[in-house]
Design goal:
The protein has helices at about 20-30, 65, 85-95, 105-110, 115-120, 145-150, 175-195, 205-215, 215-225, 255-265, 275-280, 285-295, 300-310, 320-325, 325-330, 370-375, 380-389, and strands spanning about 15, 35-40, 75, 100, 125-130, 200-205, 235-240, 245-250, 310-315, 335-340, 345-350. By secondary structure, it is of the alpha/beta class. α1 crosses α7 (about 175-195), α3 (about 85-95) packs antiparallel against α17 (about 380-389) and α7 crosses α8. The protein is elongated and about 85 Å long. About 35% of the residues are buried.
Amino acid sequence: MKQSTNLPLDGIRVIDFTQVMMGPSATQMLADFGADVIKIENPRGGDLSRTAFGATDEEGLNNPVFCSLNRNKRSLALNLREEANKQVVHDLIRGADVVVSNFRAGVMDRIGFGFEKCRELNPRIIWASGSGYGPTGPYAHKGGQDVLAQAMSGVMMRRADESVPMSIYPTALCDYTAGMHLVQAILAALIGVAKTGEGQSVEVSLYDSMIAMQMQEATCHLHNGKEINWAEMPLTGVFPTEDGALVLVGAFKENPLLDICNVLGIEDLSQEYPNLAAQREGKAYLQQRFRDEFAKNSTAHWIGALEAADLLCAPVRNLAEVLEDEQTRTNEMIVEFEHPINGRMQTIACPIHFSAIDCGVRMAPPRLGEHNDEILAELDGATAERASA
């Protein structure tokens, strides 16, 4: 039976300055793993994701975007321009294991919580920072954001071919990728502290994470000046059907073009296009033939036929279909919890599955400043009195 106690990060305290998605996605995973994550928020609105969509009422401060990224955390709302409140956070850092932020370079130093200050307070501290471009260099002080990282890293430029317009990837790909790199960095640093007793700073950026995601393409370019593009493969593509669309990956077989032609009931085009080079030359014609044929029947019909021929394929689905899919439910990717403002809510679960532990929702996403009294009570009386004044 899975248990929700004795989680891997039980006893680890994280002081969380992060906002929006990159940082909160990382600290939520740490919280799911059992860490005590104390979210430091400005009393005037809190995390930017609480008000990112123009909501200003109490329910708006607990909107689904914020709730998707902040379960299992405690909220401490403090005006950090007041010296007494800075001292409260300093006291928290003295007893913490990790400090996490995702501001522009230099911001944490300016507000009094840079790496050197935190290390002075606590030599074992792990000071983890996520940024747009990194702590130094020509872009260090630029504002970092997911869409900008798509553009600056070369990801946005990479398309199936020149006929496809450049566009914004509509899911926060860079934020989530960098957030998961931040989790990896923190976990590795925690192991390091256990071995050496000394903390350190760890840095990730949206920019670096997206370059790393292109490791295959970049290495080919650096080695021989040629850039591979998996979307350019001539037998691979997205094809409309009679009632939707499917994606086909025509690869990993001895003669995939012959198999595709057999499924479609057309002549053997592999006679005219016998190898990858010829298929690349004839891509426009081949893809048009595929489009013409796939449009003649339903998605379900073609998926069945392609799978019977052991060709890699899948229906193109919308999010609602994914959330209703039996595989999604089997994988327990949707969790429910009770929120004091919003009532019963559903959100996406931790995607990492353990056999012995349950990384579920122990605490609903916090209301702004919900845990002020509780957290201050854990400090010495003088500190709590100063903060409450």
